Amino acid sequence: MNEPAVIEASGKVETQKAVRFVPLGISKVSESEACVGAISEDGSWVRPETPTLAEVKASGSPFLYFQWANAELGESLERDPRPEDHHMVRRAQAEGWLAGEIRADFIRTHLDASAEDAFAGLRSLGLIKAKVHRIYRKQSTGGRVFLRAEFTDAKGATYDWIISEVKFPEEIEPYLVNGDITPEFGKKLAGIFQSSEVYFVIALTKPNNRFPGKFRGCHPVIIGIHTVPDYYDQLHGDPAETGTHKYQGASL
After folding, report:
1. Bridging pattern class, strands 67-75 and 17-28
2. How far, in Å, CA of 87 to CA of 49, rounded?
């Protein structure tokens, strides 16, 4: 790139600067929009606005876990931007992969101490280590069914949050029965997560006045799930036998 990333101490990217970043969280916002949480070269979080769901799922997408990408980022066009929100003046372009042998260390280097630390100040993106108690599906008061995780963070606080990540629900979908997690499959998931280091990329929605308290009226969600060893191999078996990994570069 012709010029380096320029990021102020406030976390606000100066207008139209080329920024390199590694996506670690990719979530579904609607049937057409996605949300990407990424760590830039200087270690700060960025949320490029706004990739489409088709874009993050496309072959050759710049928004893949552990793949460096770059985009021309400017100030958010939203009326109520979060510190990490930045408008893509130029759409993101894919670069090279983060080497497989350093991905776990990359994750550990950028960890927050807890969920509360991840959302300190005005932050709305973070990365935490989690102890997963269960993964389950639950119907909301509005009638929609959400995949959820009950977990405890590194400081001992326990939460129960929606998983809005794109990847994980797609990976477990073939194992559901009538859309539900069976007791047997629930035990398998519990065994996978309890035998692994588990890291969640977590995010806050914008305030909607329905969630007062700890997180400034925002709804916390899980937008990225990473494990050491990679849960993909444990879930599906030997990748050589089950085919090509749909999310190239996702393994730790």
Report:
1. antiparallel
2. 5
117 exposure class (CB count in 10 Å sphere: 0-12, 13-18, 19+): middle
pTM across the whole model: 0.88
> Mapped to the 3 state alphabet, what secondary structure does the chain carry?
CCCCCCECCCCCECCCEEEEEEEEEEEECCCCEEEEEEEECCCCEEEEECCEHHHHHCCCCCCCCCEEEEEEEEECCCCCCCCCEEEEEEEEEEEEECCHHHHHHHHHHCCCCCHHHHCCCCCCEEEEEEEEEEEEEEECCCCCEEEEEEEEECCCCEEEEEECECHHHHHHHHHCECCECCHHHHHHHHHHHHCCEEEEEEEECCCCCCECCCCCECCEEEEEEEEECCHHHHHHCCHHHHCCCCCCCCCC
**Residue 153's beta-bridge partner residues?**
130
Give pLDDT tens digits for 182-201.
Answer: 999 999 999 999 999 999 99
Alpha helical stretches, state H, 119-166: none
pLDDT tens sequence across 16-73: 789 999 999 999 999 999 999 999 999 999 999 989 999 999 989 999 999 999 999 9
- Using CA atoms, how far apart are residues 5 and 156, in angstroms rounded to an integer? 36
91: closest CA among 117, 69, 109, 68? 69
Domain 17-98: which topology? Answer: OB fold (Dihydrolipoamide Acetyltransferase, E2P) (2.40.50)
